[in-house]
Amino acid sequence: MELGINGKVIKIILSNTIIMRSIFSPKNYKQMFCYLNKCKRIYVILRLILLIISVNSILLTFGCTVKVPMSPKVDKFYVEEKLPVEAGLLISEETKNYVFRGHPESFTAGARPHEFPLGKALEDASIQVFSRIFKRLYLVRTHHEAKKIKIFIEPNIEEFHFRYDQLSYAGFAVAVISKIKIHVVLGSGETIIWEKSIESPEQRKGPWVFNLKAEKEVGESATDALIYSLNEAAKEIVTNRNIWEYVEKVYK
């Protein structure tokens, strides 16, 4: 009886010993160590991501006014034939010096003011765009100067909108979106030959997770919207038969 009991006890002890040895064998111990090490790495990565999101949110939300740089560089577009006329590009000093001051139309960075040199960007981009559709282009500042040239073109900014998009990236990254609406008048003396308002589609830049120079992306987004609208105006002017007929009549 005792031997039987002892035999059972011995069997239990032996089976427990085998189980413990299998659990704490070098192979299983190595696997357990790798698992714990992997969990630790995941934890560190998650902490790092949360830290980046927090820092990014702080940089976008707090701080002084964001001075947004804008440096338009217009890609060439195909024009079958330029209008055979010299034109004046009318951009007044007031228009040239126009600076948009406002806040993004989004919760992200909504409390931080931004400044865009839209007037200077409009002048720089307009010179590049409209010089490609006229025989020659002169920059003029007043309507009095413009009347001395047979044709003048006057672009102005009607509306500008920009916002940050963080929701599309579940808070882990940020992009910026801009769109712009311009009004362009083509005239001769007191006569308006053609005019139209043109609005760009939304222009997106990013996303980025952490960017100490985010204002560069913001400026590129606004610049792309401006160039798109000016290009559309130029294409409509140079392909408009009524404008061609007027120019040919003036230069007969």
Description:
The chain has 252 residues and is of the alpha/beta class. The chain has 2 domains: 2-54; 65-250, Lipoprotein like domain (Double Stranded RNA Binding Domain, 2-Layer Sandwich), CATH 3.30.160. Helices cover 45% and strands 27% of the residues. The chain has 7 helices and 9 strands, in the order ααββαββαβαββββαα. It has helices at 2-23, 26-61, 93-96, 118-130, 143-146, 214-238, 241-250, and strands at residues 66-67, 83-90, 100-102, 114-116, 134-140, 151-165, 174-188, 191-199, 203-208. The strands form 2 sheets. Strands 2, 5, 6, 7, 8 and 9 form a 6-stranded mixed sheet that branches. Strands 1-4-3 form a 3-stranded mixed sheet, with helices on one face. α4 crosses α6 (214-238). It is elongated, with a radius of gyration of 33 Å. The model has no long low-confidence stretch (mean pLDDT 85).
CATH topology of the largest domain: Double Stranded RNA Binding Domain
Shape descriptor: elongated
Number of domains: 2
Low-confidence stretches: none
Average of pLDDT: 85
Give me the secondary-structure category.
alpha/beta
Transmembrane segments: 42-63
Keywords: Membrane, Transmembrane, Transmembrane helix
Short recap of the structure:
Keywords: Membrane, Transmembrane, Transmembrane helix. The protein has 252 residues and is of the alpha/beta class. 45% of the residues lie in helices and 27% in strands.
List keywords for this structure.
252 residues, 2 domains, six-stranded mixed beta sheet, three-stranded mixed beta sheet, 45% helix, elongated
